[in-house]
Amino acid sequence: MSLPESMSRIVIVGTKSRMDEAIEAFYQLKALHLIDHTTGADGLSIGTPMSRNAKASERLLKVRAMEKELGIKKHAKTPKVPVDEIRSQINADSVENVEKEIMSVLDRRNDLNQRITELNSKKKNLELLGPIPVDLDLYSGYKTITSIVGSVTEDPTEVLKTIGDIEYFVSFDKKEGGIVAVFARKSDRDKISAALVDFGFTEITVPEGKGPVSEVLAVTDEKLTDLNGQLESVGKELEALQMKHQTFLKASDEQLSIEIEKGEVPLKVAVTEYSYIMDAWVPTNRVEDVKNELESKLGNDIYVEFQETRGRRMEEAEEVEDRYKKVPTKFNNGKITKEFQYPTKLVSVPKYQEIDPSVLIMIFLPLMFGFMVGDCGYAIPFIILGAYGLKVTHHKDWRAIATVLFFGGIWAFIFGFLFFGEALGMHFVTGEIENTIWGGGVNVTWDMLLGVTFPEWFSGLLPFGHGVGKLEAVTLLLKLSVYVGIVHLMIGYLCGFYNKYIQHGFKEAFIEKGGWILSFIGMVVLCFVLTQVMIVEEASIVIRGQQVLIVTAIGFILLIAGVIINFKREKAQAILELPGMVGNILSYTRLAAIGMSKAGMALAFNYIVFGMIVGIQNGVSSIIMLILGILLFAFLHLVIWTLAILSGGLHALRLQFVELMTKFFEGNGTEFKPLKIKREKTILTTENINKEV
Amino acid sequence: MADVGTGLIAIGAGLAVGLTGLGAGMAEKDVGAAAVGAITENEALFGKAMIFMVFPETIVIFGLVIAIMAIFIM
């Protein structure tokens, strides 16, 4: 069983003057999981970030701002820059220079944008004023007269007529509303505004200018075109700048982030005036290596001391200080199993002291997926798609899906070829001709469809000579599902037992999990007897007469013994959980049910296409119908194929998560995160690979 | 014409799947809403949310098993 990798705790003490170098060395090891220092009983405080961090943060802020302004995408592809080069560029104030260059263009763009907005609103007002025959300079500049100008939604002419001593201009259109300009005494202003409110009056400011409105409008338009032209050229300039500086910005972004991260390490360790002390978890098999490496690099300025190798027993964790209690989990998996860590992590990271379920998921998830799909025709696209996905994608979500598709596809092919003997819902070999459309039934088979006869040895490979029919051998499939379920659940219970055994010892494990195992076996035996007595036909009964009583008794004894053991810990839960066990087992019948549902759909679709549209049992009626049929065939099977991913994948996953993992998995661990740097935009050249990260 | 007994079996099987489907749906409605809420708050809860989400499904699987047994075995 795969437990997480064994971990050891070390303490590193060093002189503060060479801390910078030490941090570089830590990052190079890629094996130190820092334990945060908490200011507490020992009276030591945490360190402060490296002095260079302030400057680096400031620069990083600028770089990120520029990236945003220039619209450089997060995943933009840029060539890699050697670290030495980018570092010397940054130190030579390149960030500041580039910023100056970009900011001057950006300022111009913002300025232009502002002026264009202003002109646009002026233009809008001018267009509104267009229908009124008054020059712009005549709207203002009087001692006693004021002008009230605005848009209205209803025609105010009638009301304005009744107010004496004013001059007014109204232009109104029923659809678009209108504009009104009233010239009156300054003292009458409020009165007129109030009168106009009823007509949906909104005042507008009259733009400054001289002469007729149309002339001013023409001048404004000219200015706008000019400004828009300028804006366009600024846009092009910015684009050119983006191309020019993209590589530098991306590389410096990464380099600065790395520098800052390294500079913040002192925040996690304890420091005194002249030294620092830090605790870290290291994989046990690397302790010596870490010690030698650090001492050879820093000589007498560093001291590494081994503290403990943590075992899996929970008592060990109880004895130590709080911050040493939780051990990080370093997955201990091979290349293929690694791909299945993703579903485990979806639930939780395993604890240091428990089995990592990734291996079990690797075995059962594709197997169950394959069983539910169980069809060569769907399996081949799955395999191709999965292999392609695994080859091209590096995104972890997609990789997880591609992995399941690839391995699930292989299982689906094996089941489809050797067990069900079918592709695209059609058996390779015809069983009984009466069931096929050629004999008046609804099935379609490949050998009849293609007019070939498969060799004898081929049908000899398949169960029943033609493969298991998903819709015919229902009892067999249901039984098989239940057996798979029993094995799967038993593995779950045993893993639970093993977890408790390594955590607390055999006695505790037996009390906590042994009871469940006993009652599970008892329940299985009882259910077996029950089906024998009640459901199974006379011919296939295995136990009869006295044997029934004996087996029932064994089942009962196991069940009761299990309940008694459990009762101590779980109280009434020990009894209430019993029906749940049957539920868990029956839950696996979905393996058969989903296979059946897909087979049912495929059967119907094949009958529609070959039996009804093409009418192949009477010889092909017409070429058009044949082409139509084949197109429909492809489309309908694509539907089933897509559904197979969803239902097959999700239900296979669910069986792992709910039925299997709840039996033993506790999770809530912390993942092992060593100090290390992943470079994407910058590279280390061969000369500095030894002295840098 | 199939006899009345066969018809009754078919109705029984239909009721078994249909009613359990309704039950599971009603339960999943509540669980699903809560699960989506929880996931938006904290994405790490996805796995646990999914486990809770599929608990009620067991009901409909029971219904399905009964239906299958009714049709194929009785």
Structure, described:
The complex is a heterodimer of chains A (693) and B (74). Chain A folds into three domains: 7-49 and 264-325, Alpha-Beta Plaits; 118-224, Alpha-Beta Plaits (2-Layer Sandwich), CATH 3.30.70.2750; 336-663, no CATH class. Chain A is 59% helix and 10% strand. Chain A has 23 helices and 14 strands. In chain A, strands 1, 2, 3, 9, 10 and 11 form a six-stranded antiparallel β-sheet that branches. A four-stranded antiparallel β-sheet of chain A has the order 6-7-5-8, with helices on one face. In chain A, helix 13 (358-373) crosses helix 15. Chain A is extended, with a radius of gyration of 40 Å. The two termini of chain A are 35 Å apart. Chain B is mostly helical. Chain B has a domain at 29-74. In chain B, 86% of the residues lie in helices and 0% in strands. In chain B, helix 1 (4-41) runs antiparallel to helix 2 (46-54) and helix 1 runs antiparallel to helix 3. The mean pLDDT of chain B is 85. Chains A and B meet through helix 12, helix 18, helix 21, helix 22 and helix 23 of A and helix 2 and helix 3 of B.
